[in-house]
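I keep forgetting this: the sequence line spells out the residues, with the fold written below as integer tokens. I include a record here:
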Amino acid sequence: MSVTTNSFFSPEDVIVLRGALDKWCLEKRIDIKSTEAQFAATAAIGLFQSGYNTSERLLAALREHKGL
């Protein structure tokens, strides 16, 4: 996965992002290494940067994301 902006994430941010992505993949029965999971990770980063900065809020936003 590549991020096109100069963003820096703390270890806590990474835990939030990974936790939400792991739960989303589990719910969707998608392998974390799949292309679909990579798209979801990119979406998760964008959502996180938009203010969805807890695992619960981020997971809810991923569930509602139209492109996933």
